Amino acid sequence: MNCNDATAFNLTQHTPKSVITVAILGAESTGKTTLCRDLATYFASAWVPEYMRVYLQKKWDNERVTCTWDDLLPIAEGQIKRENKLAQQVAQDLQPSQHVKTQKYLFCDTSLFELMVYSKWYYGDCPTALIQAALAHHYDLILLTEVDVPWVADDLRDSPHEREEISAYFESQLNCHDKNFKRVSGNREERVRQVVEWLKALNNIR
Fold this sequence. Notes:
CATH architecture: 3-Layer(aba) Sandwich
Number of strands: 5
Number of helices: 7
Shape: globular
Distance between the termini: 41 Å
Low-confidence stretches: none
Order of helices and strands: EHEHHEHHEHEH
Structural class: alpha/beta
CATH superfamily: P-loop containing nucleotide triphosphate hydrolases
Number of domains: 1
CATH topology: Rossmann fold
Radius of gyration: 17 Å
């Protein structure tokens, strides 16, 4: 299967209303995974790992090649499958306390929106099915990580000197598609504190 066979891929998002979802986006090596893990630990909740890294690392290990156009929809489907599965698990685990209202979160290390942005960045285009899904998916809070942590090399990262430019492109795409977002910056503790305050405010609105 490839991107020309878009109907073969299911990119539909299924998130129970009881679960507050947070999508963390940004340029490579800007602390997205670390922030996801830290927030999941703080709230004793779940986080969705980035499927693309697992998919592409396996491809690199086996073939010594990186992402191609035909990988985009399989990666997108793998990502949303992970997210949907964990969202259902979080909803099932939701047990209101006798004293306070218990709120459950799902922290997503990337989303289909990020995959769409990178597709446009690298290929100048994006599969229509991926664009439609990326724009249709909803998150209660979208975070854009600032480029204020050191770049760390690995097999898949290739843009140590373009992070600022890519980050600006993320911002332009989020604004272009009317996606409200907040920039998160600072060290690990400062980033968690920022998000905790934003989620407190969000809970008051909901």
